[in-house]
Write a structure and sequence with these properties.
This protein is mostly beta strands and 471 residues long. It is 4% helix and 49% strand.
């Protein structure tokens, strides 16, 4: 989930309220009108108070959708609470929701807080401290529901230390240094840090949880994991120019191992991918797509890397003359760090590392899979998609190996450049959701209804599917 610091007008305390859509589990709330009209939009309204019963004025209320495919919730709507602490979500999609709330002091108030204290902590309806203990809210089309609750109290901690650049010089705001404390996903949340001219800093009123302390300074950056549960945490930070990663790219065709140039590539490259990384560093450092060319001998050298890191490579155009724009059908096979397979294991780089033993393996042994889906059923599917995933669970949760496509109007679908080997194909109606890679538990559930597909290099496999149902 992407969370951002938002400050409503005024100088009073702010509140962050999160609504996350969960898998249905039959919650019951107070209906405003028990006669739901399916032609009208659904709505949830209510109020959030402090533990003493005062209204949480200035609340930021957000609605998040948790996909039927699993993974972190997606932001769907935002609203401010009124003077009485009330909020209202209209035009909600039918589903099951969980409401959470989190206080955040205003900038003026935060400057006065320099020590740990007890205060309101992230809370969930009906007034509990964890998402697991929250009571879900199931809502149908046209239904109007009310959910009100009070925030719970807990320890609010501080982080303090010094901010230094790569040359070990303390840096303040006028020197280009900037700091932030950001909660790790899935429920992110950013907390400002008071940075002094001499490079010392303190950030307080931070709820219990796992965070990253993030720093940027004139082209340098750094992050370090920290955990708070009240009290003071000492955590100085020093920026750097980023880690370096070097290695080679090899291409497999049958039993042959080639360099990219020998395989006909014109402009091969190595790049960072983040399709699976669930980490705050992805949002801050913006390294998605950072790339470097591959040399003629297959070696590469990538610099300026930090954060959660996954690698891939691309062969680019066919080496067939200056006007060629055709691409070589290929697929990522594996990424090795020495003898360890790190294809789907994000390397957490703080920025000072030097990695020299990466081997990225691409394969030319790819085929095509195509077919149809029977959608002539009732109720008619709103958003049918086809998923093709490898039989090897180690390759799940990654768009390099899990293929997803919506159906064409005639109910047909096709996947090109599928790595040779055993796969499964399954069709699923996603309803209001956009497609994304299912989590491992969801793929395991889908596999029981999926059709096996044996993909062969240079060949086309044809599969006809029926819609699966996630129970």
């Amino acid at each position: 989930m992407h969370a951002h610091w938002i400050r409503p007008p005024g100088r009073l305390s702010q509140l962050v309220v999160v609504v996350a859509l969960l898998v249905p589990s039959g919650a019951r709330l107070v209906p405003q009108d028990s006669r739901a009209n399916p032609d009208q939009p659904a709505a949830i309204s209510g109020g959030v108070t402090t533990d003493t019963g005062l209204p949480a004025r200035g609340a930021i209320v957000r609605a998040h959708l948790l996909s039927v495919l699993g993974g972190p919730p997606l932001l769907k709507a935002t609203a401010y609470a009124d003077e009485r602490g009330g909020y209202r979500f209209e035009n909600l999609e039918p589903g099951t929701y969980v409401i959470s709330a989190e206080t955040a002091a205003s900038e003026q108030e935060r400057e006065k807080i320099t020590a740990p204290r007890v205060g309101p902590v992230p809370s969930y309806y009906p007034g509990v401290e964890s998402l697991e203990a929250a009571k879900p809210i199931a809502i149908r089309a046209g239904e109007q529901l009310t959910a009100s609750f009070a925030l719970t109290q807990g320890p609010l901690g501080c982080v303090r230390g010094s901010a230094l650049d790569a040359r070990s010089r303390r840096r303040g705001p006028s020197d280009g240094m900037s700091l932030l404390v950001q909660r790790r996903r899935p429920f992110g949340g950013a907390y400002p840090v008071s940075l002094q001219p001499d490079g010392t800093f303190v950030g307080c009123d931070i709820p219990p949880g796992d965070y990253f302390l993030l720093a940027t300074c004139l082209g340098e950056a750094a992050y370090r994991p920290i955990s708070l549960n009240g009290g003071d945490v000492a955590a100085s930070i020093q920026t750097n120019v980023g880690a370096s990663i070097s290695g080679r790219v090899v291409v497999r065709r049958g039993t042959d191992t080639l360099t990219p140039v020998a395989a006909g590539a014109r402009n091969p490259s190595v790049w960072l991918r983040a399709d699976r990384v669930r980490d705050a560093t992805e949002d801050v450092f913006r390294l998605w797509g950072l790339s470097t060319p591959v040399r003629d001998d297959g070696t590469f050298h990538l610099t300026g890397v930090r954060g959660e890191t996954l690698l891939s490579a691309d062969l680019g155009e066919i080496r067939a003359g200056p006007s060629s724009a055709r691409v070589i059908p290929h697929r990522l096979s594996s990424v090795m760090r020495g003898t360890e397979d790190v294809t789907n294991v994000a390397m957490r780089l703080l920025g000072a590392e030097t990695i020299t033993d990466i081997t990225i393996v691409l394969t030319l042994d790819v085929g095509q899979v195509q077919g149809t889906v029977d959608t002539d059923i009732s109720p008619r599917p709103r958003n049918p998609n086809v998923f093709l995933f490898p039989a090897d669970p180690a390759r799940w949760q990654d768009l390099a190996f899990v293929h997803i496509t919506p159906l064409s109007r005639d109910g047909s679908w096709v996947f090109d450049w599928v790595a040779a080997g055993p796969h499964y194909a399954v069709a699923l109606d996603l309803g209001n959701e956009f497609y994304r890679v299912p989590d491992a538990a969801t793929i395991e559930r889908l596999r029981a209804q999926a059709t096996p597909v044996d993909v062969k290099a240079g060949a086309t496999a044809r599969v006809n599917l029926k819609l699966a149902r996630l129970q």
